[in-house]
Amino acid sequence: MYWDVKTVKPLADYQLYVEIEDGRCGIFDVKPYLEFGMFRELQNIHYFNQVDILYGAITWPNEQDIAPETLLEKLLPINEEDQYHLIEINTISEHSREELHER
Q: 31 lies in which domain range?
């Protein structure tokens, strides 16, 4: 569907980089939800970083998810230059984590 998420990457400060099938991309801030119900578990950054996609929706292992309507309403659009920098930073970050894990 037009709102299906095709890419999600955890960022610093409980934010997610999101790409949607229709070509939109942006940042979704999860912080406003961290104090409520089952979303409290996302306060654990290691758990937060386990974000994934299931049937086009953003989800976590214990079935927390972001409703597509909420995602589209609250997604902060970013331009191509910002998108490039976020991907570059995330790639550097992933390599750093891998190096630390190998030590």
A: 5-77
User: Is there a domain that residue 66 lies in?
Assistant: yes
Residue 85 domain flag: no
The whole-number pLDDT of residue 14 equals 97
What total of structural domains would you count in the chain? Answer: 1
Please state, in angstroms and rounded to a whole number, the distance separating the CA atoms of residues 40 and 17.
20
Residue 101 domain-assigned? no
Per-residue model confidence as pLDDT tens digits over 63-103: 999 998 999 999 999 976 665 556 555 544 554 444 544 54
Residue 83, φ and ψ in degrees, nearest 5: -60, -45
What three-state secondary structure class fits 6?
strand
Residues 7 and 17: beta-carbon distance below 8 Å: yes
Domain annotation covers residue 33: yes
